[in-house]
Amino acid sequence: MICAPCFDRLRALGPLLLMGLAMLAMLAPLSHAGEIDEPELFIDDMWLRAVPPVSSNTAGYFSVTNTSDEPVTLLGFSTDIAAAGELHTMAPQDDGTRRMQRLRDVPVPAGETVHFAPGGHHLMLFRLVRPLEEGEQVELCLEFDVTAPYCLPFEVRR
Amino acid sequence: MKKLVLMAVAVMLILAAVVAWETTREPAREPLPVNTRMGGDFTMTDQQGDAFHSDALKGQVVLLFFGFTHCPDICPATMARMAQLYKNLEEAGHADDVQMVFITFDPERDTPEHLSQYLTWFHEDIIGLTGSEEQVEQVAKQFGVVYMPVGEDSQGGVEFAHSDFVYLLDRESRVRKLYPVDADLKEMQDDLRTLL
């Protein structure tokens, strides 16, 4: 049973409730675990490779989709978990070997997805400040040329 | 008459069983070819610091991988996959006669103690081998492994360009197959079983 005065108060609050629901709906994509959906970039599948405690370096992976009409460039990243971080790739050589090479930046053309994956592009983390625990989330901030840094949780996986 | 009917039913049942067996059994696998240009005896040092001769691998089916522990991408990815394969084999009861071996081509940094700490994290049964530069060069040559230091990264660590195959050796230590690092684990497991 609803009392009449209460019903009247609810009815008066109706527009405010509707506005609140609309705002929640707008914020919903931002609260989606592990993903950020901003106007231009969609970043997904972020993870760091778990390595033995004796290893001081590791690699990070993710994919980035540029949904805008303008090219975007990844310039680098920062994190508190490592002393230094660089963009790297595994480049095939003429003799059949592969060699790690530093990349100054990575273009993300308009409408395309760039994958950072094992055996290819990766985030290189030098001199970890502590061993990583499998399953933990570590924040990395990806730095692009035209947006504020995207600071996201990367899951530590084997 | 009753006997005839029973005999006919029995024949039909036998035929049905034969047809079912023929259509459901896995086709016989061709034996893996022997690679006669790779392999051979070698002596190195294991992760306990003891001398290790390749004779110790005879009688086991071996998966062999070359790398270096400061490699952040390909090598830990391959080690994690090999450890997963080991666990799959253990669960299937096929791991007893399988041995995984990691050979470093970075003996300066990959000391026995470092190898031990690194490999135990992946799986305690993996054998790690290091040695003198000459020993590493020799075994790499025997398996056609290409590796070369390509200078230092921005943080002062030595980098290597290297090939990255995983080698399958039979019980006589003959090379039977090479896999790329992203090979299907089921394929590797099926190949291993043909050699057990």
Explain what this protein looks like in three dimensions:
- The complex is a heterodimer of chains A (158) and B (196).
- Chain A is an alpha+beta fold and 158 residues long.
- Chain A has two domains: 1-31; 36-157, Immunoglobulin-like (Sandwich), CATH 2.60.40.1890.
- Chain A contains one helix and eleven strands.
- Chain A has one helix at residues 4-27; strands spanning 36-37, 41-49, 58-66, 72-78, 82-92, 98-103, 106-108, 113-116, 122-128, 137-144, 150-157.
- The radius of gyration of chain A is 22 Å and the shape is globular.
- The N and C termini of chain A lie far apart (56 Å).
- In chain B, helix 2 (74-91) crosses helix 5.
- Chain B has helices at 2-24, 74-91, 112-122, 133-142, 185-195; strands at residues 43-46, 51-53, 61-67, 98-104, 127-130, 147-152, 158-162, 166-169, 175-179.
- Chain B has a seven-stranded mixed beta sheet. A two-stranded antiparallel ribbon of chain B has the order 6-7.
- Chain B is 37% helix and 23% strand.
- Chain B has one domain: 3-Layer(aba) Sandwich (Glutaredoxin).
- Chain B has 196 residues and is α+β, with helices and mostly antiparallel strands.
- The radius of gyration of chain B is 23 Å and the shape is elongated.
- In chain B, strand 4, helix 3 (112-122) and strand 5 (127-130) form a beta-alpha-beta unit.
- Classes of the chains: A alpha+beta (158), B alpha+beta (196).
